[in-house]
Amino acid sequence: MVEADRTCIAVLDACEKYPTSHLKLVLERPEMASIMFYYTTAFFIESNYEALKTLMYHSNSYNKAFGFNIAAGYIFEEKLEQMKEIISYSDFIICNKDDAHSCARHLSAEIGISADEKDRETIALAMTKFLKVSSRPRVVIITDSQNPIAVAS
């Protein structure tokens, strides 16, 4: 890590090489019925969006909780529509303060806050109000290095 505290570190080569066909086979296995929570990151938007959508739709169809780590705020600039779609399916959103500030800048109109908002608690609460596909309440967790986390639901 350079000059920032991260909530997620990924091996992007693994994301890029992960075949969607394998994920589909895994999701069909009987033992997957007991899984209650799926978790992924925004890095899959750039490397294998099809796999991410497969997991997201499966999670919703089978009433499984879906967790999403924003992972890198710059993805809002490059893939805004994909980020909006994933957030709409997300029951849990995890990010650091920089990613939260990026979210506020890019989704301010949708979440009803100023694009310049910096207060983590305000951003977390606003993010819970973004369009949601399922009826499950959304939980937003924003980290800030050694400072207390901000949690809203």
Please describe what this structure looks like.
There is one protein chain. With 153 residues, the chain is of the alpha/beta class. The chain has 7 helices and 5 strands, in the order ααβαβααβααββ. It has helices spanning 12-17, 20-27, 43-61, 74-78, 80-89, 97-111, 120-127; strands spanning 37-41, 65-69, 92-96, 139-144, 147-152. The chain has a 5-stranded mixed sheet with strand order 1-2-3-4-5. Helix 3 links the parallel strand 1 and strand 2. The chain is globular, with a radius of gyration of 15 Å. The mean pLDDT is 89.
List the helices and strands and how they pair.
Blueprint: H1 12-17, H2 20-27, E1 37-41, H3 43-61, E2 65-69, H4 74-78, H5 80-89, E3 92-96, H6 97-111, H7 120-127, E4 139-144, E5 147-152
Parallel strand pairs: 1-2, 2-3, 3-4
Antiparallel strand pairs: 4-5
Helix pairs in contact: 2-3, 3-5, 6-7
- Taking all Cα atoms into account, the compactness measure Rg is 15 Å
Total DSSP helices? 7
Portion in strands = 15-25%
Mean pLDDT: 89
Structural class: alpha/beta
Alpha carbon gap, first and last residue: 29 Å
Low-confidence stretches: none
What's the story with the biggest beta sheet?
5 strands, mixed
Q: What's the arrangement of strands in the largest beta sheet?
A: 1-2-3-4-5
Number of strands: 5
Global morphology: globular
- The run of helices and strands is HHEHEHHEHHEE
Give a brief outline of the structure.
The protein is α/β, with parallel strands linked by helices and 153 residues long. The chain is 46% helix and 18% strand. The protein has a 5-stranded mixed beta sheet with strand order 1-2-3-4-5.
